Amino acid sequence: GTGIGDLEFTPKGDQVAYYFEPGTGEKSLVIANKDNSAMNRIADLRDFVNPLLSWSPDLKNIVLTNKSNDYPANKIYTFNLIEKTMNPLTETGDNLAAIFDSSGEKIIYTTYSSDPDFSIYSLLSIMDKDGQNKKELKARSNIPQTAVNQTLGLIALTEKEKDKYLPLSINLADLEKTEYVFSGEIAAPISL
User: Fold this and answer.
1) Strands (E) located in 39-187
2) Is 74 within 8 Å of 67 (Cβ atoms)?
3) How many Cβ atoms from other residues are within 10 Å of residue 48's Cβ?
4) pLDDT of 191 over the 70 cut
C-alpha cells in the first residue's frame, strides 16, 4: 500500500509518529507536529511492512511491530529517538502488536497462537524494554482490548473459554492476576 500507515499520537497529543510510504520506494518513520507541520523522517523502514507504533511514556522510544503477510518476519523493535537507533527485541516472528507499560520499563505484546478452543488468536506476554525477561501472561487478548494503568497494571478483556470474556488485571511487578467477575443484573431507570 501507499500513503500513511499506522499513526500514533504522543500522550499529550502534540506530536504524531507514523509510517510513511509515498509509493516511490521510500518507507520511513516520520515524526511531525499534530497538524503534520515540521515533518521529520527519522528512520528508514524499507525492511518493514506498515508497522504498528507505540510511544514510550518518556517519548524517548517508539516500539514497532512489523505487519507483513510473511508472519515469521513480524518481529518487535524499538527505535531510540535520542540515539536514532533501531534495536530488535524479539528473535522470532508471529508478533501482532506491542505497547509500553505506564513506567516505560516494560513492553506488553501479543503473539499469534491458534487454538480451536478460542476465538482470540493472540496471547499476551511481557518483556523488559530491552527485550530481556520475556514472560507469557497466559491470557488471550488483543492489544486494542487492553489498557495500562499505574495502579492496576495491565487491564485486559480476556477470553476464558470460547466466546466467553472476562475483565482481568495483571500487576506488572509480580504478574499476579485479578479476575473481575460480575453476576447479577444491572437495572437503571430510563427516561424518554
Assistant:
1) 40-44, 52-55, 61-65, 76-80, 85-88, 95-100, 106-112, 122-128, 135-140, 146-149, 153-161, 164-170, 177-179
2) yes
3) 24
4) no
Q: What pTM was estimated for this model as a whole?
A: 0.89
Report residue 50 as a C-alpha cell. 506498515
Q: Are 81 and 62 in contact (CB under 8 A)?
A: yes
**19 sits in which H/E element:** strand 15-21
DSSP string computed for 62-74:
EEEE---SSGGG-
CA dihedral 24, 28, 32, 35 (to 10 degrees): 40
Q: What is the pLDDT of residues 2-52, one digit of tens each?
A: 689 999 999 889 999 999 999 899 999 999 999 999 999 999 999 999 999
Residue with grid cell 499534530, as numbered in its chain: 34
Helix or strand (DSSP H, E) at 6: strand 3-9
153 touches 102 (CB < 8 A): no
Reported confidence tier of residue 184, pLDDT bands at 50, 70, 90 = low
The answer to whether 124 and 137 are in contact (CB under 8 A) is yes
Count of CB atoms situated within 10 Å of the CB of 47: 12
pLDDT tens digits, 53-102: 999 999 999 999 999 999 999 999 999 999 999 999 999 999 999 999 99
User: How many whole angstroms from its chain centre is CA 93?
Assistant: 15
